[in-house]
Amino acid sequence: MSNEKVDVVIVGAGASGSVFASVLAKAGKKVVLLESGPDWQLSDLISSDIWGRRVKPAGPPFLFEGKNPYGYVYQSGWGVGGAALHYFANFPRLLPNDFKVKSTYGKGLDWPIDYADVAPYYEKVADDIGVSGDAKAEEIWRPAGKPYPMPPMKTFPGGEVWKKGFEAVGMRLAPGAVGINSTEYKGRPACIYDGWCHVGCPIGALANPLVTYLGDAKKAGAEVRAHSTVTRVLVSADGNKVTGVEYYDAKKEKQVQEAAVVVLAAWAAQNPRLLLNSAAGKHADGLANASKLVGKYLLAHFASNTSALFDEDLQPYMGTIAAQYYSYDRYDKNSYKDKGAFGSTFMVAGTAQRYSALGGVANARLDLFGAELAAFMKRAATGFTRLTAFAEEMPLLENRVELASDKDEFGMPLGKITHGFNDEAVALFNANFDQGMAIAKATGAKEAWPNKGPMPTIHLMGGTIMGNGAGDSVTNSYGQTHEIPNLWIAGPGIFPTSGAPNPTYTIFALSQRGAENLAKNWGTVAG
Amino acid sequence: MDDMQRRAFIKGAAIGTLAFTVGGVEVFLTPRLARAQNLPLRTLNPDQAATLDAMGEALVPGAKDAGITHFVDQQLSIPAEDALLEARIMNVRPPFANFYRAALGAVDGASQAKYGGRGFAQLAAAEQHDFIDLMRQNKLENWKGPGSGFVYFLLRSDAVDVVYGTMDGYAHLGVPYQAHIAPTTSW
């Protein structure tokens, strides 16, 4: 069945799709968002780690292989709001050294833009959806800019105890910038610090898409169709433009949505899966794939967690799942060169703790079970806190998504993600445990231990990287594909390198920049 | 979610219950009550249920009475996209029942091989402890199924869910639950 042609069809109603929808709908464009999952509402966001799993993908349309397989879909979205429905709302930004890694260090890749190109959009996002933090405190690490619109969040003992440890090792902390309201902001309430952010904030204190960009987009006339799974991007007979998408609706019936512009804003692995599955005519290897780089240079963060137990009541159940404090003091990519490591590290301290589920206290001692686990849980209930060092891997061509032979219920090949960390990343993982333990011991904690285990993969970026031309990349810096002007890609898939911090603030900023560019150049872009 | 789905979901979540079948009629109960009433299982057979009861209790004291087996069994009987199991976010390929059958079969098979034909539920507490300690380190011999360390991780997570991931669990630990949208009696 074919639907009336619209100006823009956006595949995915998560962080990046919502920004594109908001900007373009407000520019007067007729926008349709197609989202494969349910149409979640704030009232669906039950405060429970068990029920919270419902807003995450159920089982793989992807297969996972490699030395360090992409580990879990904990950070992925499923349904309207995407992963940003349940993200931690840490809003750190990339730093200038992230944009010129190849030029500066002789490894990795360069972005075709600089920090100065993105900084105004960080500031616009902060004003638009609300960020709490202390910009001046962060300016020890980054160029000066505008203050955040809200003061930093309240802190709790579980965060405060880390200050002594950082000071002892000569490292600095700043209040975490977060997409959570420390005060009422634009009609949305202030946070009540109950620690349930990661299963979705139903009061709208946390800037999820439902209460920010997507709400704005709907007010401006954008339409969201849930349970709509896109399987192909359709291309014109001459191959010079895309004409819309094919998708399966809630009744699993095939539909076609024609559009003047297609924006792929699905998961960083799902966008290449769609491009590869849309091969047609002169695009025999998949759309926008002359570079043969569609699906290549997938990037994951990894994290070295250090746990600590105190006798005092740290109120670990209070606060937000975002960081109370963070540090860029080991952000130089050669911070641990003497240990064979390369890449930036971003440290966060003092997040609210839950007691069950993947990130819960029980998993801080995975070796314990039975009576020993029960005893640990009692001690940790009030005395537990954690320090996390997020870190960066370099883009590797062999980390990739490709089509598998198995197919999903719509006959679309599953995606296969192959991922492994190189030696420098492994060395950085280990160096960050050493650093974390040095800090933890200096806090005066009764016990401290590194949560060593298999290297986790956190966040997924790359796969449709931006660059200067079709020879070295898939899109330009706005997300427009080099080969097909009315086919755009949004989200972390366009990052050529990942930096170390949580990516969503940068996703919002780049999407705002890309969408504004698309609106401005509509006449020459639309097909 | 459409309105009907949402009403059903909220109804279940808000009172911390799941849908179980009693006398052919679907009722909402906590897994603890479902176990206390000895409701029939939908997916697991009696041997699998006994193994899961024993394993759950050995991993996290209290898991058996908290209804780990009724929880897992009920979750395996519903569509994967509605499931609340940790398996959902650990890349286990649906249907999740396949994983649990293979995992519980591997536990019993390895136990029988190691302990002269006795399944895990028949082991003494000290034997169960030793078995689990090898299982979590992938050191059990005659293990035939999904990786034993991964099985340990997921079954332990299920047991932690029913014991500590609930409002009762938080109360037991002496920490406030502080729900925005409250699962008022269980989770």
What can you see in these coordinates?
The complex is a heterodimer of chains A (527) and B (187). Chain A is an alpha/beta fold. Chain A has a single domain, classed as FAD/NAD(P)-binding domain. Chain A is 22% helix and 19% strand. The model of chain A has no long low-confidence stretch (mean pLDDT 96). Chain B has one domain. Chain B contains 8 helices and 2 strands, in the order αββααααααα. In chain B, a hairpin with a 2-residue loop joins β1 and β2. The chains are: A alpha/beta (527), B mainly alpha (187). Chains A and B meet through α8 of A and α1, α6, α7 and α8 of B.
The average pLDDT value of chain A, as a whole number, equals 96
Helix content of chain B: 40-55%
Q: What name does the CATH topology of chain A carry?
A: FAD/NAD(P)-binding domain
Biggest beta-sheet profile of chain B: 2 strands, antiparallel
Termini separation of chain A comes to 21 Å
How large is the share of residues in beta strands of chain A? 15-25%
Number of strands of chain A: 17
Task: Give the helices and strands, then pairings.
The complex is a heterodimer of chains A (527) and B (187).
Chain A (H helix, E strand, L loop, with lengths): L1 E10 L3 H12 L4 E4 L27 E4 L35 H5 L9 H15 L5 H4 L18 H12 L5 E2 L37 H7 L3 E3 L3 E7 L6 E7 L5 E11 L5 H8 L21 E11 L15 E3 L17 E5 L21 H13 E8 L8 E8 L5 E6 L4 H20 L4 E4 L7 E4 L25 E3 L14 H17 L1 H4 L2
Parallel strand pairs in A: 1-2, 1-8, 2-5, 3-14, 8-17
Antiparallel strand pairs in A: 4-10, 6-7, 7-8, 9-12, 9-15, 9-16, 10-11, 11-12, 13-14
Helix pairs in contact in A: 1-6, 1-10, 3-10, 5-9
Chain B lengths: L2 H12 L3 E5 L2 E5 L1 H6 L9 H14 L8 H9 L19 H19 L10 H12 L11 H17 L2 H7 L14
Antiparallel strand pairs in B: 1-2
Helix pairs in contact in B: 3-7
Question: Which structural traits does this protein have?
Answer:
heterodimer; A: 527 residues; alpha/beta; FAD/NAD(P)-binding domain; seven-stranded mixed β-sheet; seven-stranded antiparallel β-sheet; globular; B: 187 residues; mainly alpha
